[in-house]
């Protein structure tokens, strides 16, 4: 599994349309609130031309891409933290994803119901307030359990209470937990609680077809960019309607349609790249005639951790990894030529994996 993204937003901003397009899942997408009730889950292959190239070179019988999981979560409304709408259900679903994708509506369409005038900044603020209120509730519940131990002299509980009080104070200032200035060990300590606003955040601006390549002059979009900078979030511009149309076309026709729109890649490709960047992920490959496969790990992972992504036994019995860069592999074409030219490196337990590495793991049973 690569990573999981929870797609969230107010009702009728295009969440389910986008999910439907990304996953081709055919989920309900209608013009009324709470069309999505239970979260829909779709696992999507990550497009990677490098995998196709490697597979062709080794004549792989099986090609296995890495994947990303998209979760379409019920539309949020004001008061969700107090249980309004599908509040508690919605909020609990967010805890289980790696990153949050907030879809906001930038397009104008009188035929599509919305909560008022189109205002993506207002929408973001409504969502974030509800997430912060839920995090505040979580902090207060934990503190109520820890304060007693802290008063009894428990050093660990005292440190935890001090940290949680710091987090609580920042929440009171409407600061997302991911943006609180914490030391690395403090950040690691709070990860166990799965705070909603501690997750990486990507804003998807759902625009009309006419503005897809020229949205910069839209005053609402300019406001959105300023808000995104304030909350330290990247903005990705998509048209859910166009993505839906692309998903219904054969691959070749979809490519031609993209070109006619002046686009080089689909929304799925943009979203996956943004997700990898936000979460600090990289892809490595195993390449052989039996199977050529892409794998996802975090940047900074050592060779044994990469081996563990393939199989836990490989990490336990790791001896070394034979490593080749993707560029070298494509240039030489096969393992034999790479070995003849001395391009296969033998790397040990301290080797830090690079994006595009092609590896063979040597391990003991």
Structure description:
The protein has 365 residues and is an alpha/beta fold. Helix content is 42%, strand content 19%. The protein contains 14 helices and 12 strands. Strands 2-4-1-5-6-7 form a 6-stranded mixed sheet, sandwiched between helices. The protein is flat and about 65 Å long. About 5% of the residues have low confidence.
User: Average pLDDT value?
Assistant: 87
What is the C-alpha radius of gyration, as a whole number of Å?
A: 23 Å
Biggest sheet details: 6 strands, mixed
* Strand line-up of the largest beta sheet: 2-4-1-5-6-7
In terms of quaternary structure, what is this? single chain
Low-pLDDT parts are 25-37, 83-87
What is the N-to-C succession of helices and strands?
A: EHEHEEHEHHHEHEHHHEEHHEHHEE
Tell me what portion of residues adopts beta-strand conformation.
Answer: 15-25%
Q: How many β-strand stretches? A: 12
- Quick one: overall form? flat
Helix content: 40-55%
Number of helices: 14
